[in-house]
Amino acid sequence: MSNESTGADIGLIGLAVMGQNLILNMDDHGFTVVAHNRTPSKLDDFLKGPAKGTRVIGAYSLEELVSKLSKPRKVMLMVRAGDVVEQFIERLIPLLAPGDIIIDGGNSNFQDSSRRVEMLKSKGLLFVGAGVSGGEEGARYGPSIMPGGEPSAWPSVKPILQSISAKTSSGEDCCDWVGEGGAGHFVKMVHNGIEYGDMQLISEAYHFMYQGLGMSHAEMKLTLDEWNKTELNSYLIEISAEILGVEDEDGSPLLTKILDAAGQKGTGKWTGINALELGVPLTLISESVFARCLSSLKEERIAAEAEFNKKTASIGCSDSKQREEWLIAIREAVLASKIISYAQGFMLMRDASDAHHWALNYGNVAMMWRGGCIIRSAFLGNIRDAYANDPEHVFLGMDPYFKDLLDQSIGGWRKVCAKSIEIGLPMPCMTSALTFLDGYTTARLPANMIQAQRDYFGAHTYERTDKQRGEFFHTNWTGQGGDTASTTYDV
Question: How many C-beta atoms surround the C-beta of residue 418 within 10 A?
């Protein structure tokens, strides 16, 4: 930590809620921070307001900010991803000296971070792409931080980032070095994809209870409170229960007044795109993104409901015992689907790690997500244990703990998915997760028909079950196509 004679510990650019709270968090931990914002009045308001009485120093230009920092200078960007980050980096480059460090704490695309590492390295500067999760509360009191980029920068930024990060129940920092290049922002991207999936699963459970079982919001709140005492214990279940208990001014549940059109910032979409590029069947997270896209078509959905005279039937529970059986089943469906979501996310990280030579430590990733972040949940500790027992897990559902939960939950999961289809209740994530597991655990799928079709119309060849893998064949199906085959390749 610095004193005034040696300069401040770190500069932070961007005074939206995340930036302000990170600065106050750093100040709480004894670090001297220089704050800067493009709009001077916002800096004035911060210094006279939340930062009043702290060590925080204001800087009204980038030159002033850099001049107040100790060496190696560390400048953290908490600004909008994309062009704004690019502009600040370009403006900082001539002001910094070899060995100085730029940290991007926003939701940047991992490919941009990989490029920036190399670009800044060519100028003697170090770059860290640090995913930060936890929202405004996490930023203020301890977020999950996922730093990657230039490894030689880690010793200089480690004391600050680990000090301000969340802590597990055993006192571990929810921040550790992820890997080179864009590894940190890739892991944050997957985190956000899993977050999309978790949110959609809870929404589907809410829809099933509200529309299918006819439960009141008070009853659903009590149900989620109970779920939070089980393996489903998590931040998102906790806040969803709180949301169900909030009333509008007229005493009705506020949730019923909120328009059913979900927004998105893009990280979930990036997760799905990267899964497609790597050939990873990220079905649940991709469906959660499409569910948001579908929700945004509000006016079209209203017209289509009228055109099709769509009616969603209720389940019609005859007594409390029957409803309790359904609540057990829906809890099992959420739990099993959540396991699949995380398993798919870790499959994606594994393939990306191999493709980019990151050597990700999956147990450490689970530990970093154990506290501070939006997807923090009890069973992340079990994920860490799973990778401690077998660092080469190809599918998390094979771990004894998670396999046992899937085996216990499969009956209720199938029951809920089948009933939702029967009564016309959309449940894209729970059903896609179940279909994934059914596909993953089926030794022989009907893809042989697809390969035959491809060879029939395009001579794309196929492999045979009675021959070695890697040996390809072509059949002249019509007797007129000839024996010449197309080149065999996979995207």
Answer: 12
